[in-house]
Amino acid sequence: MPRIPLGDWVNDTVDWLLDHVSWLFDFLKTVFTGTYDGIDAVLQAPQPLLLAGIFAVIAFWLRGTLAGVLTFAGFAFIDSLELWEDAMTTLSLVLVATIIALVIAVPVGIWAARSHRVSGLVRPVLDFMQTLPAMIYLIPAILFFGTGASAGIVATLIFALAPGVRMTELGIRQVDKELVEAAEAFGTTPRDTLLRVQLPLALPTVMAGVNQVIMLGLSMAAIAGMVGTGGLGGDVNEAIGQLNVGLGSEAGVAIVILAIYLDRMTSALGTQVSPLGRRAAAKARASQGGLKIWSYRPRPQFAVIGVVVLALVAGGMGIFGNSSGEATAVSGGKDVGQGKKISIGYVPWDDGVASTFLWKEILEERGYQVDAKQFDAGPLYTSLASGNADFMTGAWLPTTHEQYWKKYGKQLDDLGAWYDKTSLELSVPSYMKDVDSLADLKGKASRFGGNITGIESSAGEMALLKSKVLKAYGLDKEYKVVDSSTPAMLAELKRAYAQKDPIVVTLWSPHWAYNDYDLKKLKDPKGAWGSGDGIHTVARKGFAGENPVVGQWLKDFKLDEKQLTSLEAEINKAGKGKQQDAVRTWLKQHPGLVDKMAPVKDSGTPAEAKQPVDVAWFPWDEDIAVTYLWKNVLERRGYRLNLKQMDVGPVYTGLASGDLDLNFDAWLPYAQKNYWDQSKDSLADLGTWYEPTSLEVAVPSYVKGVKSYEDLKGKASLFDGKIIGIEPGTGEMNLLKNKVLPGYGLDKEYEVVDGSTPAMLAELKRAYAKKQPVAVVLWSPHWAYSQYDLTKLKDDKKFFGEGNTIRTIANEKFPGEYPQLTKWIKGFHMSEDELGTLESEINKYGQGHEEQAVTAWLKEHPEMVGRMTPS
Q: Could you tell me the membrane topology recorded for this protein (predicted)?
């Protein structure tokens, strides 16, 4: 049977509409966007709790005291999740879509109720609209209305339109025919019959339709977020893209709260506006008898007074129309943008997120107002081509995004590659010994379950893999490429790698997965992947000409691999919603980079402090404390410290090679002796700042009969044969495994469990709470000894060594490059009380707030700055 070219007919129709009816779409877009902006401005203007109070008063009027209290609690909870702005954006979109849907649905429903012919025509159309997958509506919405709020509104209202029409028709048809005939018998005109008889009696059913329109609109929130509408839908899509269960749960709960509120309010409003509903409600209240405080409802005039009072309070506080709070503080002479708006689109890949939020921060520092919106690749190119976004920094060209460039390249400007060169590949774990190239996959599909784990289906790499690479090696009939997402692919890789299962995944370089896993890039002797891409900045046509300064900055933009990967790591460490905070932190570690990327004038710094000091630190309490203390103190003196968390071995290697400058936590001469001996000729010892220390294994004091390592002999079953360790590769762990346990004859009896310091402390806390035996790797000084009653096991044979001190070590060139800083460090000492109180302050403030904790501690120790860095 010949193929019916339905898709071609649809495409031709769309092209014709775009060519001949674009004026109508532009007009509708202006109406939709203007309505949305107006409602969103009203909802975003008041302080969140004031608006929550207004919502609560409405609930109090419509449903009673309990509903008012729960409403305020629910919206206050959304505010506490820091999702208020997103929730109001979603609410604005739903309200606009609902209003427009009802403007269309109610008249069509009335028409269908009064004409069987119209009803017969409308019904299959409504069936089609409700059964067509909701995401399909995004395609014409983007093409006709661009990306952003207008596309989301159109897709939402089309999807939500059907129940409004159906319920309006149903409500009118259900009105008692005898009442209609009686009205007509008394000479009532058809118009008055509709307005005075049918519609009032049909209102409960019509309002049920309104309720369903709103609910369907909210169900479209996540889908609409895919085209840049933002709001809670954007959060849901971000959570899906990152497999972030926490963010997804928060956004989902916020949508549920909105849905419950709107559902309850619209159903109650339907009761209030309907004569039959009011009569039924009055009978119900009369039957209850007496005043019920939780179901008490004020008179409408009192509810209106409450809303007005809250609105006046908001206005009196100066929060309506207050834009100063959002203004970016720009130093004199650097306000290049003067508030001009710029829109950046990005695909949620690591390099795209990092470079986008880097430029967002830089441009805002230069006085621009920047809006960063997340898209899939296809909608992003469409948005740039239509002028709805200004530029993107994540275009992989000429290969990965080739299909989009062919379609939209004439409407775009390539501002050049800022990172070169990348590669696309399939990768397998290194334990897959007989698979080294794409050709080696032939005949081995059963080992991989016939699957290649892919990423987003819209990615250019996926299209290239399916259409060219597999066919080039004859693998297209043997393997199925599983569409998913980058986080899902990485999660599957992590799972398979942990179990040593065969897996082949879609990857690219640069990518941090090659650092975390031992992987092989499958060779491509036929060159099917093509030459490596560059990561380009692509702008809408004419953007650089309209913004010559920004255009030149973007053309000159470059990042090397070290800069890009460290920025990506900082963003990943910061977590959800904190991308720009992470960029600010990273820029503090790279002083002068803003002036280099967006030059205005030379900022000028002292000679020794011009280059940042690269400081490596371990996630140990004393190292966290002393590192952030030095960071605070030296920044007051004009220095900038670039902090990098690392393991012990890489720190010594980095210092010896000159890639790092300092580490404040060298436990010498014993704990880290093996590392020191390997690299000591390339290192500088800047002196001891804390002594004495000790390394040990400790057990809770309720474990009787275990006072020394000798006492552990024969008691492995008591501790389940395990000693809970910290980070593998640390000097203490190496000493324990290679010297202490063999020295006491415990190496065959006990297993040292590699982990991390937080994991060890969590296991200690859990066991201590249940009074269970546990042996953990510890050291002194440590705050655990003040929190728990522990026994340090005696080391009679001195295998852990004695007399460790905590020293500062540097690369051998450091003293010559930083003579003043070297002098300060050599004169630095801390007492046990000072170090203990600083560690305690940092623990009290919590992870991520180390700088605030150090600032608070220094207020209590004002002499420390002068003591550490004397003039």
A: Multi-pass membrane protein
